[in-house]
Specification:
Radius of gyration: 28 Å
Strand order of the largest sheet: 1-2-3-7-6
Strand content: 5-15%
Distance between the termini: 94 Å
CATH architecture of the largest domain: Alpha-Beta Complex
Number of domains: 3
Structural class: alpha/beta
CATH superfamily of the largest domain: Aminoglycoside phosphotransferase (APH), C-terminal lobe
CATH topology of the largest domain: Aminoglycoside 3'-phosphotransferase, Chain: A, domain 2
Largest sheet: 5 strands, antiparallel
Shape: elongated
CATH class of the largest domain: Alpha Beta
Length: about 550
Amino acid sequence: MRHPDDAAPPGGTARQRSSARQRQTRRALRALDRAMRRPSFYAHPAACIERRETHLSIVYLAGRFAYKIKKPVAFGFVDFTDPAARRRSCEAELRLNRVLARPLYLSLVRVGSNWPANRSSRRGAAVDEYAVRMRRFDERMLFSHLLERHALQLADVDHAAARLAMSHLHAPRDVPRRVLGSAALLRSQLDAVLDGCATRIGTARIEPLRRWCGDEYARVAGTLDARRASGFVRSCHGDLHLNNIVRWRCGVLMFDCIDFDDALRWIDVASDLAFVLMDLRAQGRADLASRLLNRWLDATGDYGALVPLRLYIAYRALVRAYVTRLGADTPASRATSERYLATAIAAMNEPAAARPRALLLCHGYSGSGKSVASRALADLYPAIRVSSDALRKRTRALEPLRQRALSAAAYTASEIDLTYARLLDTAREILRNGYSVIVDATFLKRKHRLAFIDLAAELGVPARLLDFRASDACIASRVAARARSRADLSDADLAVLDAQRAAAEPLSVGELAIAIACDTEVALPVIESAQYWELVLKIDEHQRPAATSRTS
């Protein structure tokens, strides 16, 4: 029996001839598909072939390799009916994915229905196609599957944050078209997905989200365009859900990036980050999302990303809620869609539902354990941690840290005052966006402490001094070891420690009233436990900054 696509008129209009060519292509690709399902097609051991199909591609899992071809389809956002377009997409996929997953993306190969990949046949082929040849990996190591087995480790999250931050730091920033990454484009994307969700899920359920997205967009639109003008729109992955992240050997790889649509790839780095944060939240792991966010911020210094982050998280969740409804309408797809919709609603309600904001100030000498302990607290509270050492060694956000030691000129009294002023501005912006803040600095001068306590009073949030303590011998040992290793951001050595002890101003009576003593001469697992931070975790919205005057 002939397939309906096989009939083609011998003449006719240009449109008819085009339709005939497309039918002929589809017929040839069906032959190629049958061939690629056979182990004998491949020039290497292939055993049983597994075939995976998406809206745009077909992937053949053959032995140690995977071959991905593009389907001759046309949607509103992509047109692969032209063989040249399919080849360009394969070339782009290979090139772009090597940024975050080089070990997986091997080569571009020409395939045909009558020859194996990488070798030709005298008989030729009915179709000339190209496939991306990839190295296969253990699918049990996908982040989505690791989460299902409760096997995703903190180290995996840290590796993912570091790899993503590094890609953002060094990503191309020459945006090819002015509209890409703009507030206006985001608005149109939001409208489109909200309209789609209203059709698939129901207008009444989507309208509250539509109103909130409109209000939030109005609040951050100026920030979005300012960030674009300042270079925060870059060539990104664009599709960072947990099925596209895999544990690989001693690290993490991120694959299958957006290669077919500049509007989905040239985006604000905050939008790229928001996708993986959203998916972790959707899987019930807000704690891991908080950890990844803090590690990414440590590496990039892009605290301005927090301004539009909730809107981006809601947008990403709405996209997934909509996409899962486009396929087969099954109980599983509906449940997945509902989970993503709930994640968008949670982002909308987060400022009201989250733990009340607080400003937590680290206090103690270099080597007192502030940095290690504050990182652990940031994951538990949760809060955004800001480090004076990192801020001092970065000229501006989204630039790599200077790893070498700074000169003595960076530590004069005036420079130290400037560092605290920058910390204060950063803390103010974070608090205003509804996040708690931990400021990791020594805070040995009273004027610096009071400036932050005044900020807490101004914004009506609780302030606490976390007074980190250890024996003199322990502190000196830590500082000496750190100075020898040269692997820490801190430039403090024993001479700096002696100067700190000589110049430190003790906490006043009023400051002691909001201080919480933290003994760091304990094992790291103790510091990482909720019990260690019991007094901090009990801070609630009724506890306001103590009335600490400048004369107390």
